[in-house]
Amino acid sequence: MSKILNRYLVQFKGLAVGQHVFSFDVDKAFFDEFEGGEISNGRLSVEVILNRLSNMIELDFFIEGDVEVKCDRCLEVLTIPTEFEGKLVVRISDSIDESEVSDEIWYVSSNEHELSLAQYIYESICLSLPLQRYHGILGTSTDDCDSEMLERLQTLSLDENQEVREADSTDSRWDKLKDLMNNQN
Q1: What pTM was estimated for this model as a whole?
Q2: Is 121 exposed, middle or buried, given 0-12, 13-18 or 19+ CB atoms closer than 10 A?
Q3: Does residue 64 contact residue 45 with C-beta atoms inside 8 Å?
Q4: For residues 76 and 161, which has the higher predicted lDDT (pLDDT)?
Q5: Stretch 56-69: mean pLDDT, rounded?
Q6: 77 near 135, Cβ under 8 Å?
Q7: Is the pLDDT of residue 110 over 90?
């Protein structure tokens, strides 16, 4: 595991039963660890409330901040606010109950002593993003959209609409067949 992602390890072995609070900062270095991701940068704070029980750990996540993604319209960088609240349950057991397997339940061996929360944090941030990302949503300004790119899109859209209209014009041979069908009725 990389030095950056090691920051998101939680040592649970030796923690007393009860609640413990962990805070993490997420920044560009964190997102750089996840190659091919849609988030290029971000400044988020993560608070994790860990409730340690004898054979189980409950983790409540609170993530809040801003991330940089590409605008779906103009492909320029767009900074949008994001927040996430989620719960994760970790069972400490050497056997897995297949009927309880889900995305919200992790199983770790009794020999384990730490949890890596980096992947869960990354996926939670990605899932908290809106499906469509463009200048003008969530308090961002439409003026930040690249006007040159929007003009190109408008031109391409008009050209495409013209092609569709031309394709929709019927072939005269089909018109003659339709006339035959209508005459039989």
Answers
A1: 0.77
A2: buried
A3: yes
A4: 76
A5: 96
A6: no
A7: no
Q: Which amino acid is at 131?
A: L
Average pLDDT over the chain, rounded to whole? 85
What's the rounded Cα separation, in Å, for the pair 134 and 74?
8
Task: Give the separation between CA 33 and CA 39, rounded to whole angstroms.
Answer: 11
Read off the DSSP letter of residue 135. T
Contacts of residue 21, defined as CB under 8 A and 6 or more positions apart, other chains included, come to: 47, 48, 49, 50
- Tokens of residue 133, six digits: 């990302």
Give first-to-last CA distance, the chain, whole Å.
Answer: 76
- State the Cα–Cα distance between residues 125 and 39, nearest whole angstrom: 9
- How many helices (H) and strands (E) the chain has is answered by 4, 7
* Cβ neighbours, 10 Å, residue 165: 9
Determine the Cα–Cα distance for residues 92 and 11; give it in Å rounded to an integer.
13
Q: In a 3-state reduction of DSSP, which class is residue 77? A: strand
Lowest mean pLDDT among 16-20, 28-32, 116-120, 142-146: 142-146
The predicted model gives 31-50 an average pLDDT of 93
**Distance between CA atoms of 78 and 181, rounded to whole angstroms?**
56
What is the sign, positive or negative, of the torsion defined by CA atoms of 27, 28, 29, 34? positive
